Amino acid sequence: MSEARLGLWSSMTSKVHSCSGILWPESSFFPLSQWLYDHRLSTKELEEKYGTNILQGLTNMRAAEILARDGPNVLSPPKETPEIIKFLKQMIGGFSSLLWAGAVLCFIAYLIEFSKDKSASLDNLYLGGVLIVVVILTGMFAYYQEAKSTNIIASFTKMIPRNALVIRNGEKYEIPAEHLVLGDIVEIKGGDQIPADIRILTSQGCKVDNSSLTGESEPQFRSCEVTHENPLESKNIGFYSTTCLEGTATGMVINTGDRTVIGRIASLASSVGHEKTPIAIEIEHFVHIVAGVAVSIGIVFFIIAICMKYRVLDAVIFLIGIILANVPEGLVAAVTVSLSLTAKRMAKKNCLVKNLEAVETLGSTSIICSDKTGTLTQNRMTVAHLWFDNEIYQADTSENQKDQIFDQSSATWTSLSKIVMLCNRAEFKSGQESVPIMKKIVMGDASEAALLKFSEVVMGDVIERRKKNRKVVEIPFNSVNKFQLSIHETDDPNDKRFLLVMKGAPERILEKCSTIMINGQEQPLDESSVKAFQDAYMELGGLGERVLGFCHLYLPEDEFPDNYSFDVESMNFPTSDLCFVGLISLIDPPRSTVPDAVIKCRSAGIKVIMVTGDHPITAKAIARSVGIISANSETVEDIAKRLKIPVEKVNKREAKAAVVSGMELKEMSPEQLDELLANHTEIVFARTSPQQKLVIVEGCQRQNAIVAVTGDGVNDSPALKKADIGIAMGCAGSDAAKIAADMVLLDDNFSSIVTGIEEGRLIFDNLKKIIAFTLTKNIAELIPFLIFIIAGVPLPIGTIAILFIDLGTDIIPSIALAYEKAESDIMNRKPRHKKKDRLVNHQLALYSYLQIGILQSVGGFFAYFTVYTVQGFKPDLLLYLRPLWENDSLNDLEDSYGQEWTKYQRQYLEWTGYTAYFVAVMVQQIADVIIRKTRINSVFQQGLFRNKYIWVGIASQIIIAVILSSGFGSIPVLNFTTLRIQYWFVAVPYAIVIWLYDEFRKLLVRHYPGSWWDKTMYY
Amino acid sequence: MVPRSVCLTLAGWVRPAAAPKGTSPERSLGSSFAELLLLPGPSEAVGADGSPFPRNRLLWRLRESVALGDRFSDIWDTVSLTSRRLILLFYLAFYGFLAALFTFTMWVMLQTLSDETPKYRDQISSPGLTIVPKPPGALEFSLNISKPATYENYIDAIKEFLREYEGKKQEHLLQCRNGTFFEQDNIFPKKTCKFSLETLGPCSGLNDVNFGYPDGNPCIFVKMNRIIGLRPQGEPRIVCAVKEGTEVNLATFPKDGRLDLMYFPYYGKKLHVNYRQPVVALQVQFQSYNQEVSIECKIEGSPNLRNQDERDKFLGRVAFKISLTQ
């Protein structure tokens, strides 16, 4: 048992901290030389250096000068990409560039035509315009969606203006903190945030919470003495943005704004590059596939068209058609909407997503580097164990502490509870009568607050009881005495004795005792009871808990009568030969939902690594209790202890778990770190510095893992930024962390991450479905152009109709797929492999393009031929009819039945053909959206009607098609015509075949896992 | 107490570790290309001659990658050869099935149709008008009396057009009753009414084999598109009028440009084998040379034949220009 651990209560002395070794590197990030001496300088030297006066402060004029020189005392916000750049990125990214190319080609085609013939048809001009409108609208849409999710966060980061109490011209002023300058003398008191880096000049019991900077959850004393050569370890420096918990202090501002320690860390965070999100990489990959297919088919057919002696102009127009057919115009919108729907869903489950793409990243996460304090734990000290009557009792550490099941009948407990209640300076803030006990705000130290709440829960109405036991005198805790003492009147009117109660570091308390209370009886403190005490102390300390000892003494009535005047200075009362009553240990307990969440992560193949600034023992204890180190796994040290051999002799491979302190990590080479990360499944990093967090994240990323990092402190922000997905805590988190993160946990609860992972995995699956759905009809849009070029038939579908499929009928169904439930338990499979499990794999591409896509095209052509045949043009006549069909001056073209057609009549028939083909694709896309509900299960297993949105989507498809076909579409440029009812059903057989075929595919995939069919057909 | 190793860490290997990440997309492409060139396929680890990299296979992979696009090839490369063969086989079968399905559905669809009459005539409720001869491109005749080459083609085209109407070819046709439909719904085979060239007067070609072209009185024939089952109401005639230009007279033959009802209805190519379409001849009699006239002909006198459609310039009407020079 480490000495440091046992003396936790005493850990407020500098001794423990000097060896704790928070690693503050002196690197380019931290040129300490600049104020290396500030903590060592005497007040006189400081006054000289900063040209100030400790009592009078700066003059207002001097302050204004320095303010003008150094700028305001604020952190400069991270560089934001200008909105216009973000917007333009949406305009040219992905498919947009292809569409721009299409639009330019349209204009070129129009110009060529126009230069030849002034009365050239405006179709190409319109089409070019429509394309540009499409690009701009989808771009604006995506931009809007992005901006919307970013705005939620923006409101978060708005800083509340803080004020500082400053002495200038010898008078106290309350000024906004950003007006502070070097050399200002500031006063701070409990509850204040330290407004800049300050050198402490005077201190009265000042304690600060440095957890946002170092991750240490224990309050730190601040005094005016130099305690360490490193200014960051020295107790006479207060850091910007840390909180003063209690006491008061005055200090001199020695750093402001970006030059503060926090400012430097924040700038470190912004210097860490942000990786592309996995989904962005996937979508890029997919865009490349589609663009590759579009461009290569386009070029091939451009050449074919030229070889077939088409005019160049026509070949260009074909090229436009091919590009247009290949580009899934609606996909960007559908993907963005799906992501933001998921983001919304996650926000409901307390995961607020800043960057839409991060929604999926969480799903592919394979390692979570979790912070301890506040994320895994409740971030409040809580009574965990009690020891009295030689027995350790467990207290309820859950969030409400309702079920205190330990034995409360013992008389020892009665005494102990009295000490706990009385020897405590913490108080509830007034006006919180209706607030549940656990939520009440307490004024005072974390441990005292824990004890106050504990007694309030167990005994009720502490304040009233304290009133009955009037406090006569008290000695507050100090680091020299290491105990706290108070003397009270008793609540028994017949008992005129005074009660002396004391708590403190257990070994110090024990020293002062000569008796121990067992079952309410005072017994002499013999060897065996000391041994029992030691064992209990060791055990509780080993659990990573902070242990306090409690003792009391009833002062004899004759020596200390009613009117006895107690004097704290002279200590005119006994402080030895007391009666030892018991121990209480405190811990920041794990949140009750965390163990479950860790198990879920495990079964989902996700490694959970704890990275904390806290002590290794505490870290390990918490890791064990939440399951990060599972019950049956051992660290190298555990094995050594069990086998009673030196640590060096243990085979490192045998240990599943590892606890690594910052000191050890410091000595490691990157290779050793890689080995550590690869060979241990359960790892805890303790006493780590911000830079080390970064090193750990990078180490994980070298393992090809997708790393999620949780954190709340400023010290976490570089790692949050570096991680594939940074998760900040919404309640406890600092603004810097929230800015650096991609996601904010509103309830600071680790288990919310698990729901996030689930949603992320689901959206990945659903994006696959959406893309498969969207890609399918691209072939059905492409084939008509190919047949048109090669077989010279009248064009089966026009470019405008294609746009109406992509941006009209298909949009809502594809978004509806985002609502699809998981097919199996997605939390039982491994995280996807970055390189192997692609969003769009060849199975998906081939199945969508070459099977269902071709099937759809055949269905479309069937509808097309039906319309032409029924109206008089039989298929055989249509072949190579194009030159005559499109001849404007040929107004008596003979059909298969000997009738003659004017050009416009043929044109109208062509539009009817477009409409029929459009409707056929729409009908088959209904089947397509139904089959895409599942990838392996039967649609019936999934439940045909479980996802209502699919049916909304299908209804929208039909309604849009009906609207287009009836009236609205007869607007000249749109070229839709009213179809006879029966044409709507022509493609139904094909739709049924699609459904049946896909069910057949899924059946075989289910029945022959691992077979060739499975490998080829399962996407 | 300056932790040196951390400084080293930050300055040294952080950057190189991050660098490959940023470039990973390019690298993955590059590496896939390298694999393409260097790695043998999984099932042919060693070539026939024992060399580790069989040449033909290499070329095949290269070709394939070019055909499919580099991006596609890096996923396709992971597919083994046996699997690829199976895939080919599968697609053969699948497309065979599709072809059968398409053929079957087309066959069923064709079964529902009659060979003689199309099921619907939605787009051709009203016929269009066209002219013979037809100038190439836009309907603009540019005739020069002194240059026969400018109209010889037209004369040939007219002759070709009127060949069907020669007396010899119409010998076996019926002389029908004027002014009434020639209904023969239940008569097989369908009979055809004779269209006598005599009715075309000077444009009949019987007297003037040059149809007036060398004389500056060119004949232009206006015909109405055939539509199965069309029964014009009233007394349809083709009326031509000069739109621009003054010094011309227009004469239509038969008289008033009448289209006799006996030529209707039409029963279709298959049933109505020898059908003769009624024609109206228009003689443009130029009063002086060197002028351009534009003429529009319309069907009139029949309420169910439309002649004023905004979008279809040939529905029941036809407009053309003639310029005549000397």
Automatic annotation (TrEMBL), chain A:
Q: Which family does it belong to?
A: Belongs to the cation transport ATPase (P-type) (TC 3.A.3) family. Type IIC subfamily.
Q: Which residues form a coiled coil?
A: none
Ranges that cross the membrane: 92-112, 124-144, 286-306, 312-339, 840-865, 911-930, 950-969, 981-997
User: In this protein, which residues make up the domain named Cation-transporting P-type ATPase N-terminal?
Assistant: 37-111
One GO CC term, this protein? cation-transporting ATPase complex
Q: How is this protein named in the record?
A: Sodium/potassium-transporting ATPase subunit alpha
Which gene is the coding source of this polypeptide chain? LOC100914716
Q: Which InterPro entries match?
A: ATPase_P-typ_cation-transptr_C, ATPase_P-typ_cation-transptr_N, ATPase_P-typ_cyto_dom_N, ATPase_P-typ_P_site, ATPase_P-typ_TM_dom_sf, ATPase_P-typ_transduc_dom_A_sf, ATPase_P-type_domA, Cation_transp_ATPase_P-type
